[in-house]
Amino acid sequence: MSAYHLTKTRFKEGSWEGLLVTRDAEAPPPEIAVTLRDQSVRGVTVTETSEPGRWVVEVPVPIEAVGDGVQTFLILDAAADSVLDSFTLMAGEVLDDDIRTEVDLLRAELDMLKRAFRRHCLETM
Questions:
Q1: Is the full-model pTM beyond 0.90?
Q2: Which domain of life is it from (predicted)?
């Protein structure tokens, strides 16, 4: 089990960011490893904050991860060999059967029906 706890703070402009915290303020800097399809992700940075026992973790999304399919990134405490967090990118045809895609399509159709109904009500008055 890891002595660290990682919480996502944002995912913006191709970079996942999180706050890594430990209960022990004297803990050494963590050894963070990020993998995608069992391959190491390069460019990961761990930056100490002004508060002891806290670090900002930044994971750049490599260009090869952008495309059709589901891509799952694992963020690991390398020293404890445990998963701290993960995030997933989904895109393309794989989403055709995804419930969230279906909900988005239903919302779009509902908006279209609302506009048509309102237009019909105005025309028949």
A1: no
A2: Bacteria
